[in-house]
Structure formats: C-alpha cells, structure tokens
Amino acid sequence: MAPSSEPLTTERILVATEEVLRRHGPAKATVVDVARALGVSHGSVYRHFRTKTALREAVTKRWLDRTTEALAAITATDADPETRLREWLATLFAAKRRKAGIDPELFATYGLLAQESGDVVDAHLVELTDQLTGIVREGVARGVFAAPDPAVTASALFQATGRFHDPGYAKEWEKPGAQGDFEALVDLLVRGLRA
Amino acid sequence: MAPSSEPLTTERILVATEEVLRRHGPAKATVVDVARALGVSHGSVYRHFRTKTALREAVTKRWLDRTTEALAAITATDADPETRLREWLATLFAAKRRKAGIDPELFATYGLLAQESGDVVDAHLVELTDQLTGIVREGVARGVFAAPDPAVTASALFQATGRFHDPGYAKEWEKPGAQGDFEALVDLLVRGLRA
C-alpha cells in the first residue's frame, strides 16, 4: 500500500491488517508488517494497538462484527417473530457460507486468529445468542412462541444450527443437500417453538 | 502381549490393534506392529487384513460399531417413540462423552483414524440416521409424530444434535452447562416432532 496523507485511523489500520492477512496469511500480520503496508512508522500503529495480540484481536472482532451487525438489523425489525427467526438463521448461514466460499484462505486465516482470540469469539457468541434471545422473548410476548426461559431456548437454537454456522463445518456448506438440510432443521425447530 | 495358543481370529487381531493404538498412538498401528504384539508372524495377520489400510479401517469400524449396537438395542424396544428418541439421543451423547472422557488419547487416535477412513465413517453415519428414521417412522405410524418425510426429519435431528456427538466438540462435553444444554435442545426437537 502506498503512503497516504489520510489520517491514520484505527479503521485504516484494520483495513490494512485484513489486506496483509489476505495476501500473506496469519503469520505475517504483525504491527511491523502492517506499518510497512501502510507506509507509516511502527510507532504510529503502536499508538492504536500496543501489542500484536491487540491488533489481531481487533481485526478478528471487526470480521465477526460484520456478521453481528447484519443480524442485528433483522433482530430490530417489526416482522413477526417466526419470520425474524427464520431470516436471522438463514442470514447467518448465508453470511458464513459466503465468507467461506468467496475467499477460503482468508476464512481459514480468521479461523486461526479466532482460536487465538478466545475472549473475542466468546463475546461474539454471547452477542449472537442475545439477539436470538430477543427474538424468542418477543415471540413469547406476542403469544406465538412457547419458551419457559427464552435465553435457554435461544442457546438451544444456536447450538442446534451449529452445523450451519460453525466454521468447522465449512466443507459441508457447499454440498448439494446442505440448503435442504438447513431448511428441514429450521422447520423442525420453529415447530418446536410454536405456542 | 505374550504369544498365545488361542486361534488367531479377526477379533483377536482387532483387540490387539486397539491395544497397540492405546499404547503407541496412531502412527504405530501397522500389520507388523500388531503381529509383534500378538507374537505371531506378519503373514498370519496378513491373511486377515491384506493392507495396513484394511486393518485400520476394520479397527475403526469396530470402535464405531460399539456405539451403533448400543443404540440399535434402543431402536428395537417397544417403548413409545418419544421415549425411544430421547433415550437414543441421550445414549449417543453419553457414549461419546464416556469414550472421550475415559481415554482422551485413544479417542483422539480414533478421531485421526476416522479421518483416514471416510467410507467407514459415512457408513456409520448412515446406520445411525437409519436407526433414527425407524424411530421417527414408528412415531408417525402411531400418530404421535408429524414428519412428512421421516428420513429428512431424522437427518435434521441428527445434525441438530451434532454438538453432542461430533468428536470436534468433545472439549465442550465436560463443561458444566453441557447436560442442561443437551436437554433443552432435545425438548425443543421433541416438541417440533409432536403431531
């Protein structure tokens, strides 16, 4: 990347970090590598990220947050809860499948980073389950879902659909039956939820 | 293992192979290693297993078959289908958790062997899903389950519970919430199945 006169924001550093990851894989994404890609001094990157770990956690969080934000938009609509639930699960599956399909190497790189950044991933999973809890709670409030404890049910829904969002299953997502399997599973779960 | 005067059956070879795997890990389970453990000539083992691959597939199948057989007994009872389904899923989870917990190294060794023996594992998964299909079909026949296509529903049930039988999740099984998560999921799935 050529030096630029733009101010060195956190976002610019993270964009450059992702580009370094895309080109060179996980081993090369250090503060020094990213500073070089941006044509700036190490010190100016260190002012934003004091360690390699902090940089790598931040870029992993940014990658995960893109999914979280797309899903938050569905959570926040006023559609009936069953529609919202189906869209939420379908969007999560589609987002993961797209990420894994478009650039499998970057997907695998983030998979490795995620293993290093356990706290970031745990927080991401809590955010997603909280969104699901909101949908389930709304369904209970409207009398269309039965769930004695919406948080427990949301966690069960998230775990039940793991095959369609856990990166460990990425190889399964392009198989011919995957979409049909996903829909059969969601139908079964939605039936189980109905009041 | 000391030489023995017992006849050299396939079962004896497989018992010895598992013992070699337990002691030495996956790298050492060759025909020569197993013959040495049994105190017999290579040739006498080769008469049962003509390649290292055949031997390793057979010992993997034997390991998987122990679970299949325990589950087949539940499939075959005359209990009401919901009880059978719950017991089947609980027994599968318990069997996997026990295998992973009692001897994690042997469990990991079989995990590696399973990756080599894709056909054996696929056949195992088909057997298990067929057992589930039988339970779902019986529930439909008795009017207690609703499932337009029992095989599709059985596959959805199996995939939905993957977190509690897929070896990739073994680390999750000993966490404090795992049993409660499992039960919440099964409750949701059973509700979804009811006619």
TrEMBL record, chains A, B:
InterPro entries: DNA-bd_HTH_TetR-type_CS, Homeodomain-like_sf, HTH-type_TetR-like_transc_reg, HTH_TetR, Tet_transcr_reg_TetR-rel_C_sf, TetR_C_27. The keyword Acyltransferase does not apply. This is TetR family transcriptional regulator. Residues 7-67 form the HTH tetR-type domain. GO terms for molecular function: DNA-binding transcription factor activity; transcription cis-regulatory region binding. It comes from the Bacteria. Residues 30-49 bind DNA. SUPFAM superfamilies: Homeodomain-like, Tetracyclin repressor-like, C-terminal domain. Keywords: DNA-binding, Transcription, Transcription regulation.
